[in-house]
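hiii, so i know i said id send this last week but things got crazy w the move. better late than never?? heres the sequnce for the chain we talked about at the cafe, plus the structure i predicted for it. fair warning i was half asleep when i ran it
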Amino acid sequence: MKTKGAILWGIEEPWSVEEIEVGDPVTGEVQIRMETAGMCHSDHHIVTGATPMPGYPVMGGHEGAGVITKLGPNCPADLQVGDHVILSFIPACGRCPACVSGNMALCDLGAGLLMGQAISDGTYRIQARGQNVIPMCLLGTFAPYMTVHHTSVVKIDPTIPFEVACLVGCGVPTGFGSSTHVAQVQPGETAVIVGIGGVGMSALQGAVLAGASKVVAIDPNPWKREQAQKFGATHAYASMAEAIMPLLEATEGRMAENVILTMGEMHGEYIEEGLILTGKAGTLVVTSMGRMDESDVKLNSFLLSMLQKTIKGCIFGGGNARQDAPRLLALYKAGQLNLDDMVTRSYSLEEINQGYKDMLDGKNIRGIIRYTEADW
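okay and structure toks below
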């Protein structure tokens, strides 16, 4: 079918909204009419080249929610035309060693996420200007329609608004799970969240719901610090350096049991800064993405060893999308997880470049693309 999509044709180029062709679903695939797409910082990493792609053009978007319109052969019986679904940016086969050991965020299917070939048959589902297009994370939610393998699809409660549902495909479970699954924040502990965007605000809410007595938000943007306190932060500072002395005083010298790095771009020197805020036997969780071509990390190895601190990486919150997404949306319905206020602005697909400018300017916690009948 012919539709439109936001295509990237090279590093540091703007998103180009133009005509694309999306293939019909084959074995194990579904076609989805998209309602919303989240504008995550990870898509901007392919613009800057921080996440290298094997080639161009690339279709952006890996957060999204919509309605199934077509089913290919041999799809799971629990997926039907008309179902409301979200897209999980990492597929989960349920059978590989990572999945069966409980690490579905590390499913072996993830090895091909940036290559572009469909899981089902190794071909491409999107064409633009007569060329094959690589969809971000084998999804490409920056288009009104998409064809995707069922392992990337999670059925959701149809009463959930699409505007917030799309966030549980990446940002919300990534941040929330950083606190609950990876850091394993416990009641009464101190948690520090560095970087208050969509992922950071989700990590903050995870720490609050886990029972942390002190939740420290760190961000250079005054508006984001103000928002963080509305979401449950007990303290807010502009930088990790600024937080050192107040945190020492507030914790009687013990510092934080958990520090979670969720800034939009990771750099090696942030590890040492984060470890300074981390107490004895504490955990530093690195959720933020750095450039694949950077490998320098700064840290004091003496204090790392002598104070028995731990550094953990984190992808997708260390969770399971099929289990976590329904649970997070249940918390939303119960009024315990604030997703409505995380959606700062809605944009049309044609406004995508303005949306990313607003993100980089610190104006949004999360911007979303809202599709309408005019797009379908």
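btw The two ends are 11 Å apart (CA to CA). thought thatd interest u
miss u guys!!
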